[in-house]
Amino acid sequence: METIDSKKTDKNQLPPDQVSPKEVVNRVILFKDQLIRSWKLLAIFMVIGGAIGFIIDFNTDKRPTYTGYITFNLGGGSSQGGLGELGNLAGMFGLGGGAPDANIFTGENFMYYVVSKPIITRSLLKEVDTTANHKDLMVNYYINKSGIRDDEWEDDDTLRNFRFIRGKDPKTFTRLENKALDGVFNRIKGETSIAQLDRKSSFLTLRTGMHAEMLAATWLDVLLETVQEDFTEKQNRKTREMLVLMENRRDSLGRVLGRNDSNLARYIDQNQQVVVAEGQLQQSKLTRNSTFLQQLYYGAVQSVDNLKLSLIKEAPLFTIVEPVSLPLFKETHEPFAFQAGIVMGLILGLIFIFLRQTFYSIMQS
C-alpha cells in the first residue's frame, strides 16, 4: 500500500521547471493582497510621476509649429565642361567618381552653402512686404513674429526693443547690431534645413518650421531668392570681370576712333587742293589708322555681345517644382507628460511592490 501511495504521489507532482495553475492563482491573490496593503506606496509613485509630468508640461512650448517647404531644381550653367548639365547634376549628389569636387555649388557643399551665415544674413537684411502697404527688413519681421523676444531675449530689455535700420551696410554694424543679428541667425538656422527630395532625383527641398505661418512662408521665398542671386553672382564672376574689361576697351577704342575720324575729316577739309606727296601721305596715315581702329572697335563690340550672351548661358536656372502653399502644415503641442507621468508612476510602483514581495518570500524561505 505504501508503495502504491508513493507512486500516486509522485505521479501527481509536477516537474520542478513547471508551475501549476493553482500556484499561479495563489500568487496572483497574494500579489493582490500585497497591493491592497501597499496602496499608499503605489499612490506615492503615481503622485511623483504626475508631478514630474506636470512640471514638464508647464515648461513645454505649447505654441503650434507651422512647417513649410519649397521643392526646386537647380539646372543650367553651360560652363561646367565635360558632361555639361548631366555631369553637373551627377557631381552635385556625389554620383561621379574621383576625388570630391572643390566647387561650393556641388554635393554637400551646396547644402552647407544654402544655410551658411553669409546667405542667411543677406536674406535677413532684405526688404519684405509685412502688411499690405508696409515694407520692412526680414530680420525685423522675424523679431516681431518668431517669439525670439520672449524666448532667447526675455531677460534683455535692450534686445527686446531693438530694431535694425534699413539701408545700413553690415560692415558698419555696431556691437549691439551684430549681437542681435547673431542671435537671430543661430535661431533661424536651427529652423531651416535643405535636403535632397529623393536619392534618384535632382530635386531639392528647402524646409522650415516656425510659430508664425506667414513668417515661415515669407522666409522660404526670401531665402531661395537670395540663394539664386548669390549663386548667379558667384557663378558668373569671371565672365562679369571680362565683360567690364571689354566694355572699357570698347569705350576707349570708340573715343580714339572718334578723335582720329575728326582729325581725318579736318585734314581733308583743309587740304582739298593739295597734291604734294607729303600731304597725301598724312591723309593715307589717318585713313589707315581709322580703318584699323574700326576693326578693333567692331571686334570689341562683338566681344561684349558674346560675353553678355555667355552670362545668360552660364546663369544657373532655379526651377520651383512645388512653391510654398498656404495653409502650412500645423503641428500642435498638446500636453501629455502629466498623464504619462501617472502611468509611469503606476508601472514603477507595481514593479517595486512585486520585487519587494519576491524579496520577502525569498528571505522567509
TrEMBL record:
Keywords, comma-separated and alphabetical: Membrane, Transmembrane, Transmembrane helix
GO terms under cellular component: plasma membrane
TM annotation in the entry: 39-56, 336-355
Molecular function per GO: protein tyrosine kinase activity
Domain of life: Bacteria
InterPro entries per record: Bact_polysacc_biosynth/exp
Protein's name in the database: Subunit length determinant protein
Biological source species: Larkinella humicola
